[in-house]
Each structure stands twice: as structure tokens, then as C-alpha cells.
Amino acid sequence: MKRIFLLLLSASVTVVVSCSGGRSSAGKPGTKGELIPKERARSFVAERPFGMVSIPSGSFVVGMADQDMMNMPERAALKTVTVSSFFIDETETTNAEYRVFINYVRDSIARTLLAEAAGEGGDGTGRGQSIGDYAYMIFEEDEEMSPYQEYLESQGGRDEGVNGSRRLDWSIPLHWNTSNYPDVEYAEVLESMYLPASQRIGNQRIIDASKLTYSYVWEDHNTAIQQNERGANFLKRESLAIYPDTTVWVKDFNYSYNEPLFEQYFWHNAYKNYPVVGVTWDQARAYCDFRTKLKTDYNQSLRRKKQRPMSFRLPTEVEWEYAARGGLENATFPWGGPYLMDDRGCYLANFKPKRGSYIEDDKLGTYTYTAPVKKFRKNGYGLYDMAGNVAEWTDSQYSNSSYGFSNTLNPSTKNHTDTRKSVRGGSWKDIGYMLMTGSRDWERKDSARSYIGFRTVQDIPEAAVKPRRRSN
């Protein structure tokens, strides 16, 4: 028995000696075997995106807390809820901002078509003087590839369509003026994006809006959580036309002459600072994804390491109401009081003040339809047009009783299969009741209206150093 014990002891000593020889594998050198994260303990400061303001976290009574002239308590059951901090656009998304999205999609499609038509190409000057300049970027023999790029090439490279290897050269300028087309092949590709001559009015060259499609991927978190699994099965691929429906100015109003807005509102420079309308709920979400991609691509282009940005999205219905109240308790309207005029008799929002009258001031001849953003007083958080101008899409599913069954912590009724989406804020064609902070409305998500727009939000991590509240 003693002999067996000695053998075991000898074996254990051997193990100890072998582990202590050379550099220890038990922990990083210098940590003395302790579990010490390599990341430094630094404070994370949330970077405020351009054109957004920060909304501090807090609690408030959601719903018609002061009055409900329609006497429908099931639509606005009073309830105290808590909302985390977030960034939100100070104005509704404008025509000019949405046109950046349109132009990006247009240019991406044009460059892809040119690259496909150019084949191997690469025999041009590199300044857009021939279609060959627009070929996919390829690695020269003397160009050093990273291991990841070598892996992509080993998987088939651009010939097999592996993402990451098919690189468009955005430094080569596009020529949209017909007099600057470099060659016939280029002209053939670019002209394929326009309406054919047989469909033009007055021989106007107009981009075929049906070809301006945006593709992106999002994860269906609700289904993944219900099935307790995450993976490719829950990735949803969307591809949709993103050009606004400009015909809404005619379709929304029978027996009304609104053709000038139908023809000019979205593209004319005079309307660049007006809120974009005619956008469906799905198109608004696509815009949010584009804005996220824009920031992500910029961060990846930096030499220094940069954090992946928080995603842009539509606000939940409760987030929207919380921001609209501007930090005031029981605020009937975003400016606080129960009145629609200030002490000088001027209306505080763009809405329909009287039966048959859509103009806020007959003497000054103010806005009959929408108004440019920032023309009316901002609320306590520095947000414009949280009442009137255009109503706004939210991310929330609409239900008469959603305030009753939703959680009290960051309430959300997100359901992508439900076609009814909450719309808040009232618009230029609505009466004063619809402008109240607690007033609710809805629309089908595939509907585009001349009185519905949107604004975006971005989360602020709970661990972040909260940005200072914007001073008025």
C-alpha cells in the first residue's frame, strides 16, 4: 500500500515540475494567475449624432393624463412608465436628407451595372474616361493582400460573388450629363436606368423609380427569442423600392387641385427643408438601416479603431410621447399649456385651425400644407414639430389596449407581422385634438400619405456617460 502511495506522489510531483518549467500557461504573464480583463476601465461617452438631441431617462404618466375630450379611456389608459435615454432627430426627416438616401442607392446601382458591363476592364485612365474605369477593383500583382482578402480570393473571389472581394471604386466620378458620357457602352448602361422614351412626358429624362431598390438584412429578434435560438434562420432579407410615392398629394384628396405638389414637392429645391412624405413604414425603416450603414462604413474607413455605432431606428410609441412632452408633467401639448396660441395670438404649430381654413394666419398667409422644419417653437428638449406639420411613424404595433398590457419599463409592442402601426403627433390637415401629446392614431404600414413622415432615434447605452441636456 505504501508503494502505491509513493508512486502517486511521484507522478503528482512530475506534473508540478513540468508546469513550472519555462513560461507559465496559467494566465497572462504579469497577472500572477489572476483573471484580469485586458480592456482598460474607461468611461464610455455616447457620441451625439449630427442633427440629434439627447433625451434623458425618466418616468412619466403615459396617456391622456389631463383631459380626454373623446372619452375613450381604452385608447389611453393612464400608466406610469420608465424610459431609457436615447438620441432623437431634432426635426422630422427632410426631403434633402431623404434625397441623400435616394442618391446613394441610385449611384450604387449605376456603379454595379457599370462594373458588370466592364468585365475585367481596368484598361482606362482611372478618371472615368471609359467604361473600363468602372470595373470592380482588383488586386495588382505587386499589391499586398491581407489574409482576409486572400481568403476571399481562395473562395472564388469576385467571380463567385463573394461579398468583400467585389469592390466598387467610389473614387471614380459618375457622369450623369449626356454630353459627358465617355463612350457608347457607358451610355447604354446609364440610359437603362431612365424611363424609356415611349414613357416620357415632354421628353424629360427621369430616373425609373421602380429600379431604385435598397436591400438589407435584419434579425427577427422576437421569433428568435420565442424559439430560444439565434442564427441565420431568423435573418430577414428586405429589398424594396425606396422612392417616395409623390402621387399621395392627389390620391389623398378627391376633388382637390394638388397637382403642383405632386410634380414638385419631393425633388424641387424650394422644398428641400420640408418634411418628406409619401414614405411607408418599411421605407422609413430602410432609411434607418442606410443611416446606420453610412456611419459604420465611415468608422471602418478610419485607421484608428472605432466602436461599431449604435443602430438608428424608429422610436417606439412611448419614446415618442415621452420626447414630445419635453420634460413637462401632464403636458397637453409639446409646449406645455392647453392652448394652441401664444400670448400674441400666434398659433404654436402647423395644423388646421378652423373648419375649411388650413392657414394659421390669414394676414401673413402662412402655410397651407406642410411647413419647413424649425419654423415653430421647439419644446423643452429642443425638438421641433412634435405637434403638427406631419404625423410620424413609430416602430410600435397599434392596439387600443396596448398601454394596458405593455410593460412599465421601456414599453414596446413590436410586431413586424401586424400591419397596423402607431402614428403620432397630428399633421397639417388635422384639428387641434390630434396634436395633443397623448392623442393616438394608426395607419397600415404599407400605406404612404401626404401627411405622414418620420424621425429616427438611436439608443444610448445605459453604462455610457450621459450627455448633457441641451440648453434652450
Report on this model:
The chain has 472 residues and is of the alpha+beta class. Among the domains are: 64-94 and 248-279 and 315-467, Alpha-Beta Complex (paralog of FGE (formylglycine-generating enzyme)), CATH 3.90.1580; 108-207, no CATH class. The protein has helices at 2-20, 95-118, 147-154, 184-191, 221-226, 248-251, 259-264, 281-301, 317-324, 402-405, and strands spanning 52-55, 58-62, 79-83, 86-89, 213-219, 235-241, 312-313, 391-397, 420-424, 441-444, 452-453, 457-459. The chain is globular and about 70 Å long. The chain starts with a helix and ends in a 13-residue tail after the last strand.
Write a brief structural summary:
InterPro entries: CTDL_fold, Glid_motil-assoc_lipo_GldK, Sulfatase_Mod_Factor_Kinase, SUMF_dom, SUMF_sf. The chain is α+β, with helices and mostly antiparallel strands and 472 residues long.
Q: What integer value in Å does the Rg equal? A: 29 Å
What integer is the average pLDDT? 83
Going across the biggest sheet, name each strand in turn: 1-4-12-7
CATH homology superfamily of the domain at 64-94 and 248-279 and 315-467: paralog of FGE (formylglycine-generating enzyme)
CATH architecture of the domain at 64-94 and 248-279 and 315-467: Alpha-Beta Complex
Shape field:
globular
Residue stretches low in confidence (pLDDT < 50, at least 5 long) are 1-22, 156-164
Number of discrete helical segments: 10
Number of strands: 12
Q: How many angstroms does the end-to-end distance come to?
A: 87 Å
CATH class of the domain at 64-94 and 248-279 and 315-467: Alpha Beta
The CATH topology of the domain at 64-94 and 248-279 and 315-467 corresponds to paralog of FGE (formylglycine-generating enzyme)
Structural class: alpha+beta
Organism: Chryseobacterium lacus
Keywords: Lipoprotein
Protein name: Gliding motility lipoprotein GldK
Domain Sulfatase-modifying factor enzyme-like: 51-457
